[in-house]
Each structure stands twice: as structure tokens, then as C-alpha cells.
Design goal:
The chain is of the alpha/beta class. The protein has 8 helices and 9 strands. The strands form 3 sheets. It has a 5-stranded parallel sheet with strand order 4-7-3-8-9, covered by helices on one side. It has a two-stranded antiparallel sheet with strand order 1-2. Helix 1 packs across helix 7 and helix 5 crosses helix 6. Its EC number is 2.7.1.48.
């Protein structure tokens, strides 16, 4: 994890925070969305109005690029690789994240999994203290990865991920079993091994067993709670920070985030 977001400032000896970005990566159906949901639930954010939430979540799926007519035909046949980096509009994601860091309200598009296209609908993301960005390749693009203040990798075994993906794609996305299995073997599994798994090395925190790992989630929630509700005075070498406001190696916060 970066020592401190570049856009932190010190005012009257206390930290003034801009949004704290947390990237959540992992394979398809590894439990990324569920981990984010549990984090928000434990922080009491799920029941709040959108305008009042201090923690919000964005999916990388909202930044799939528009398909050409021929690509759309291939997608309908289950022959388009949605797990390849080229399937995403990383420039648009980067632009949105920079606006979020600037404290702006943004409109995030909604992706239609049935039609394999960006819908006409969007949802508004209001300025928040903490923003979770989850997706299979959120660590793949260096410019995007470098914006994250904390990086989590949800590590779930391949059998579990496939067992979750099959019913999800059939019931929620209108696919048939043969199409789901063919797509998994031809695209999803190879892309995970080539593009997603290597980004695990960038993670500050690896979460084995995904959302079932309540201990790991509780530690992350505790860390986010500190970000949201604590202001640390700048005291020479105290409270885990040196006289210039940098976190000291071996401080409790540093240990918690490993």
C-alpha cells in the first residue's frame, strides 16, 4: 500500500482527506462484489441514501467498451473474450477515478449482461470518503493501479469460482450451460492465468476464501473505519507517523494493511 495518498494534505496539524481509493481484484466469481458488500454492511453504509454514503462501490464491468457489430455477434455466440484487457475502456475508467479523487460527483454507466452492451442508464456516485473499485483487471492497467491507496486481491480456488459462475450466468445472464462452460474453458480460465493472476503480486492484502474470510474482512473494515473517523495529529514519531506526516514502517496501521 502506498505510504499515503498523494492528495492528502495537512491542515492545522491534522490530515484532511480526499477520497481513499481501494482496488478489489480477483478472478471471475471469486467474491469481489460480496466482499465489497460485506465491507459496506459492516460500516453501516448499505441502508443509507446514495447522497449520504461515506463508502461507495464501483464495478469495472461498467467500463466495458462498446462492441463493434461483428464483436456483438461473436458475444451472442459466447465467442468474445470479455476477460481480456482489450475488452475494457481503461481510459474512461481512469478519467472517472481522477474525477472522484477531485471530489466530483460522477455518472457511472450500467452494463447490460444480457445484451452485452452499455445501457442508457447510469448511476450517480456522490463524493465519499472511501471508494471501492472491484473488477477482474483493476490492477492490470498501471495508470489505474497507481491511483489506488489500498489494493485487495480476493483469492478463491478455481473450482469454487466455476461452481458460482455457472448458475449466475444461466439464471442472471440468460446463458445456457454449454455456452457457459465453453466460454470458461476457451476464454475465462486462460485469461485469468495470463492477465488476472499475475496482478496478485500488486496486492497489499490477499483475502483467501473471499467473503467467507470474516477475519480478513473485519481487519479491512477496521482499517477503513480509521480512515473515515480518525484524524491523527502530526506529532514527531508518534501515532505511527514521522514529523513529515509519513507513516512509520512497523506502525500498527502498516501491520494491519499487510
Amino acid at each position: 500500500m502506498s505510504e499515503k495518498p498523494a492528495d492528502y494534505s495537512l491542515t492545522n496539524g491534522f490530515e484532511s482527506k480526499t477520497p481513499f481509493l481501494i482496488g478489489v481484484a480477483g478472478g471471475t466469481a471469486s467474491g469481489k462484489s460480496t466482499v465489497c458488500q460485506k465491507i459496506m454492511e459492516k460500516l453501516g453504509q448499505q441502508q443509507k441514501e446514495q447522497t449520504d454514503r461515506r463508502v461507495v462501490c464501483i464495478s469495472q464491468d461498467s467500463f466495458y467498451r462498446s462492441l463493434t457489430p461483428s464483436e456483438r455477434v461473436r458475444a451472442e455466440r459466447g465467442q468474445f473474450n470479455f476477460d481480456h484487457p482489450d475488452a475494457f475502456d481503461d481510459k474512461k475508467l481512469l478519467a472517472i477515478l481522477k474525477e472522484i479523487l477531485a471530489g466530483k460527483k460522477v455518472e457511472v454507466p450500467e452494463y447490460d449482461y444480457v445484451t452485452n452492451s452499455i445501457s442508457d442508464r447510469s448511476h450517480t456516485i456522490y463524493p465519499a470518503d472511501v471508494v471501492l473499485i472491484e473488477g477482474i483487471l483493476v490492477f492490470y492497467f498501471p495508470e489505474v493501479r497507481d491511483l489506488f491507496h489500498m489494493k485487495l486481491f480476493v483469492d478463491t480456488d478455481s473450482d469454487t469460482r466455476l461452481a458460482r459462475r455457472v448458475p449466475r450466468d444461466i439464471m442472471e445472464r440468460g446463458r445456457d450451460l454449454e455456452q457457459v462452460l465453453n466460454q470458461y474453458m476457451n476464454f475465462v480460465k486462460p485469461a485469468f492465468e495470463e492477465f488476472c493472476l499475475p496482478t496478485k503480486k500488486f496486492a497489499d492484502v490477499i483475502i483467501p476464501r473471499g467473503a467467507d474470510n470474516l477475519v480478513a474482512i473485519d481487519l479491512i473494515v477496521h482499517h477503513i473505519w480509521d480512515i473515515m473517523y480518525k484524524k491523527r495529529p502530526r506529532v514527531n514519531g508518534c501515532n505511527g507517523f514521522d514529523e513529515d506526516g509519513r507513516r512509520l514502517s512497523g506502525s500498527s496501521e502498516d501491520t494491519l494493511s499487510r
